[in-house]
Amino acid sequence: MARRRLVLALAAIVAVAGGGAAVTAVSAPDREARDAGAADSKGVPAETAPVTRGDLSDSSQQDGTLGHLGERKINAGTAGVLTWVAAGGTVVERDGRLYEVEGRPVRLMYGAEPMYRTLKTGDKGKDVRRLEENLAALGYVGFDVDEEYTAKTAAAVKRWQKSHDLKQTGTVGPDLIAFAGSAVRVKEAGAAPGDRIAPGGPVLTVTGSERVVRFRIPVAEAGSAKAGTRVTVRLPDGTALPGRVSAVGKTASAGDDPQDRTPKISVTVSFDQPEKVQGIDQSPVTVDLTGETRRDVLTVPVNALLALPGGGFGVQVVENGTARDMEVKLGMFGQGRVEVTGEGLREGMKVGVPSA
Q: Which of 39, 80, 94, 143 would be a feasible disulfide site paired with 152, CB 3.0-4.6 Å?
């Protein structure tokens, strides 16, 4: 049977979103000639594959890197000689030591904004509330958690200072505490003991303590990695842990590999149970994207698709020793197959595929 239609060379599946897909179809006269040569005198292809019914998923695997959430600088809040600094890899929690200047520790408190002034009785503001929230979380009570620094707040500060063998002034500033959103992990020190530091100078680079995975995915495949998408992360030791996509980048870039200039976006994965994550920082991992699943659908191999002369797609159905073209509509692509629907199409039918 002569083929006047174009055989798909299905070079790429470029998008999977909203239950549909788009494919890039390119002319392949050499492939068509080869297929024609492999067919018998009745135009029946030498190779066929069955139409199957079942579940189809657009799951995929991506290479990722184990890391930590976020990165920020902790700058000096006072001048002097640095006498101690937390080592790389150390996790510092609320009220823990970050660094010491001339023997006096600067401790971590939780808060989204930096400590920028020395707080005293009569002061008001959101930074007062953040301090009081931390004091309350540490068990110091007897004051209202609000935006006013009262004599009761000062009394609680004195008790906190006494517990750390500090002079009990009732005032507190960036020479004693630094704010970060949560517990931090020290990535590296920006200064070493013995260095003289000045206010605003870098002391530590820290990240969040939560373990995460980051990977980059082609923009065309971004639909399979939406926020909330379930994943399984396979760690270097073989452990498989569940998680979800927690953040997807807004800006695409080609990356540093000169052999691959495909525009990609960054994706961050958070673990369901981060406390179970073991592994060296920046270790390679594999991310299994669960993606969408279509239940009880008919599918054929992707390479069974043909471009029809009038537009649209079809398959070559082989029955009783003869072949005929059948128009089909495409659904989800995944695992080398594509969801198809068409009048008369049924499970078990044979469709032509290119010879190996």
A: 143
